[in-house]
Amino acid sequence: MAMSSPPTGTGPDPGTEPGIGNGTDAGPDAVDDSRASAERPRRGRGSSGVAGWPFVAPFLVFFVLFLVVPIGFGLWMSFTDSSLTGHGDTAFAGLGNYTEAFTDSEVWQSLGNTAWFTVLSSVPLVFFALVMALLVHTGLPGQWMWRLSFFAPYLLPVAVVTQVWNLLYQPESGMFNTVLKAVGIDGIGWLVEERYAMWSVAILTLWWTVGFNFLLYLAALQSVPDHLYEAAALDGAGAWRRLWSITLPQLRRTTGLIAVLQVLASLKVFDQIYLLTKGGPAGSTRPILEYIYDTGFTNYRLGYASAVSYVFFAIVLVLSLAQLGLFSRRED
After folding, report:
1. Could you tell me if 288 and 107 are in contact, meaning their C-beta atoms sit under 8 angstroms apart?
2. pTM of the complete model beyond 0.90
């Protein structure tokens, strides 16, 4: 009797398992799952992008209204002879305001005062913050008290700080001159003599703002791996060797960050000088921001004040990029 051959296409191919190889035996559910898995990432990416705009939109609105628009308006104003009084028509001045700014001796004097204050304040604020953080990190008794005393002045308003230090700097009744006279030294005109006025402001700024840099250094010290110190101790390295070979190299990024932030903050000095010395004596402490303020709101020359402010902005931008480039090369 002849054997009938099985119908073609009804049995599995030799050497294959059901559902593997051709995809036709996996069934409709497997096909739907594979198709859904292939389409799901595309839908997820598109929907997530659209869904994120409601969260970003409020920030973009405030960013445009309070940053982009004022910057653009101020830049346009710097090319005009706008006045705060509003009298007369605003005329286009072209580059006249910028030409005057580069030839104005008071602009250069205030820029020099700003640079001098930046040097006087930035270097001690980085150095003393590091020393304070190292002392606290080494385990001084009563660490909570040291941390509080180092950081608490930074929380005080500038008006309170200047009022307190104004009393300390008084020629006759101030604490500093009282101590100097007690040891046989004549009193110093801290705020009324040109050679001491900027130093006085720098000392005030050091006491007031060093707590912020101290906190950054302390956080960086706590993140240094302990096994580095343990390995160095096993190799016989002393405290100074561990400081120079482990601690300071590990703090290089933090030092660069603090230096950039501190230089920017010092270049923007205004509050404590304006409240303490009003830029005196004889303009020896007037920074560039106070000159811009006086020009725009005292002399009513908003167009010229805007031009000076953009010149200062360009200087700050160049210095910031130079600092970032310098520290990035040192890290490499």
Report:
1. yes
2. no
The predicted-structure confidence for 29-42, as pLDDT tens digits, reads as follows 554 555 555 555 55
Q: Are 279 and 290 in contact (CB under 8 A)?
A: yes
First to last CA, the chain: 88
- How many CB atoms are located within 10 Å of the residue 274 CB? 19
Give bridge partners of residue 83 from the DSSP assignment.
Answer: 301
Helices and strands in the chain, H and E counts: 15, 0
User: Rg of the chain's alpha carbons, rounded to an integer?
Assistant: 33
Rounded distance between C-alpha atoms, residue 230 and residue 240, angstroms: 14
Alpha helix (H) residue ranges in 138-193 = 143-151, 158-168, 175-182
Give mean pLDDT, residues 85-109.
87
Q: If 0-12 CB within 10 Å is exposed, 13-18 middle and 19+ buried, where does residue 244 land?
A: exposed
What's at 324, amino acid-wise?
A: L
Q: Which one-letter amino acid corresponds to residue 38?
A: A
How many angstroms separate the CA atoms of 210 and 206, rounded?
A: 6
Three-state DSSP at 238 gives coil
User: What DSSP string runs through 70-122?
Assistant: HHHHHHHHTTB--BTT--S---B-TTHHHHHHHH-HHHHHHHHHHHHHHHHHH
Compute the distance between CA of residue 191 and CA of residue 286 in angstroms, rounded to an integer.
Answer: 13
Closest by CA position to 155, among listed 216, 202, 208, 217? 208
